[in-house]
Amino acid sequence: MNPHAILIPAAGASHRMAPRDKLLELVDGIPLLRRQALRALETGAAVLVTLPALDHPRAAAVEGLSARLVPVPDAATGMAASIRRGVACVPPGVRGLVILPADMPDIAARDIAALLDHFEAEDARVLVQATGDDGTPGHPVIFPADCFAALAQVAGDAGGRAVVQANRHRLVRVPLAGPRALTDLDTPAAWSSWRAANPGS
């Protein structure tokens, strides 16, 4: 069994993109959420995708994939709800959980694999956080199994930040090329800028 799992939190309301849904925007001809799930699945890890509900339109975007869909009925309370529900569904025996934001189109499977290599090089005892090539902290972040209990208790919109801060003495930061660890698309302006820089996507 692959000792890693990837959690893609996709239960948020996407208010800043209203009336459009940022996770259903097409990239390379498919919804961004499906593209992100496919990249996660390329790593061979178990993939969990949180959704507002199993009958939400986002569920159709990941239909037919081997990712596990996790409903988050309390998604309105913040990102932490997705993390709590997702952690509760992590398969037994997983050594590390990658939290991969759904709205970061530049993260590739090879980036996730590189982060996992660093994680395993430290015998799965550290947290690993991707950064921009300038060192700015970004995403994804990998949490070892001994952090799962703390992740199961996070609250609000801070997500896993409190857990990262509490474990900063064993946090390893790994730069990814360019700004890919920092690029998230949650406003129409961000999408316009990204599409201009990535014609054909």
Commentary on this structure:
It is a single chain. By secondary structure, the protein is of the alpha/beta class. The chain has a single domain (4-197), classed as Alpha-Beta Complex (Spore Coat Polysaccharide Biosynthesis Protein SpsA, Chain A), CATH 3.90.550. The protein is built from 7 helices and 9 strands, in the order βββαβαβαβαββααβα. The chain has helices spanning 32-42, 57-61, 79-88, 109-121, 148-151, 161-166, 188-197; strands at 4-9, 26-27, 30-31, 46-51, 68-71, 96-99, 127-131, 137-144, 171-175. Strands 5-4-1-6-8-7-9 form a 7-stranded mixed sheet, with helices on both faces. The radius of gyration is 16 Å and the shape is globular. The mean pLDDT is 95. Residues 7-167 form the MobA-like NTP transferase domain.
Summarize the structure.
With 201 residues, the protein is of the alpha/beta class. Helix content is 29%, strand content 21%.
Structural descriptors:
201 residues; alpha/beta; seven-stranded mixed β-sheet; 7 helices; Spore Coat Polysaccharide Biosynthesis Protein SpsA, Chain A
**What is the strand arrangement across the widest sheet?**
5-4-1-6-8-7-9
For this structure, the CATH topology is: Spore Coat Polysaccharide Biosynthesis Protein SpsA, Chain A
Distance between the termini: 34 Å
Order of helices and strands: EEEHEHEHEHEEHHEH
Quick one: CATH class? Alpha Beta
Fourth-tier CATH superfamily name: Spore Coat Polysaccharide Biosynthesis Protein SpsA, Chain A
Kindly state the percentage of residues in helix: 25-40%
Summarize the main sheet. Answer: 7 strands, mixed
Q: Which ranges are low-confidence, i.e. pLDDT below 50, for 5 or more consecutive residues?
A: none
**Tally the helices: what do you get?**
7
CATH architecture: Alpha-Beta Complex
Measured on Cα atoms, how large is the radius of gyration? 16 Å
